[in-house]
Amino acid sequence: MKISKSTATLKQSGIRAASTRCAAINGINLGQGICDIPVEEDIKYGAYKAVENNKNIYSPCEGVFNLRQAIAKKISEFNLMNYDPVTEVLVTHGSTGAFVCAAETILNPGDEVILFEPFYGYHKHILELKGMSVKAVALSMEDLSFDMADLENVISPKTRAIVVCTPNNPSGKVYSQDELMAIGEFAKKHDLWIVTDEIYEYITYPGYEHLSIAALGDFRERTLTISGFSKTYNMTGWRLGYVTGPAEVIAKMALVQDLIYVCPATPLQHAGLSALKMQQNYYDSMAAGYLEKRNYVVSELQNMGFKIAPPQGAYYLMTDFSGLNLGDDEQAAKFLLDEARVAAVPGRYFYMDPEKGKTILRFCYALDKAKLQQAMDQMKQALSVV
Ligand code: PLP
Fold it and tell me: What pTM did the predictor assign?
């Protein structure tokens, strides 16, 4: 039997593949964006209470109203943007669900979308699954900067949108106000949608501040801002996210969500309310914890001979291992898994042209400190015999 053209070429993502191989040998997974810090008791209690109180039925397809209200409040206080909880906020099946609904709502097959590369693979693959094509603009691996001329170079009559991801997975870049203003003006000039994935918004390091592009200039009308609970509250498996944007688009996205997902899990939406009640010290100590891990992992990897542009936010880093004699990116990842029992993701999965990633590995440093230490020790030992 034949299957669809769009799935015929679909393969398991490099990140999942690395995780599967790592689980098979009971290794330490620095490949996938996994954070194993437990969920706060208050949030768990919110979920128990919702189940106990029989919050069992489908919610409105836009999401539980109280949660939309709490999200609008969070967005006005943290992101400095005002969105109407009734018409401009949609609770989604993770931020991935928001991205799927956005692509379905604002784009057509054949449209071109600009991504910065290295990119987050799901952005590229979801767009391609839906028949859009991706044009990539390079972030420098030396200092995470980009060149506006490169953006102009990829514009064609088919370009419809640009995706921003800040703080960035996989590079750790946090886009500055000047950069966001330049991207916004570029989007205006070419009449593009801006889709911004801000799921790591609370994880920034000293000297870098998270800014939402929709809060700047007059970009709000062309911007969909996506975020979620997965990373901020260690709830990746709960599948809870949200998106804000102009009312007419959010209304269409709600219809799309209704067809694809019906609604996010109702009891977990109620637990999301408890998450949004966390106090400032929760966010401060989370960011401080990741800062400590970033500093530790960056210094250990640099001592082992990896070259790194230190992450400005999020909990990933791209390393250039060309000084280490480990072959190409697939061979280097295989070596680390076989010899150090540590998973990393081969660089090729973050570039349109796999050649560009062949001296690069991505590490995630979200695991607890003891596991990170064990991983670094095992890597040092394995590399000492290369
Ligand atoms: N966006 C980015 C940039 C990510 O790195 C991830 C997960 O790694 C996601 C979205 C997935 O988020 P969610 O769990 O809300 O679907």
Answer: 0.95
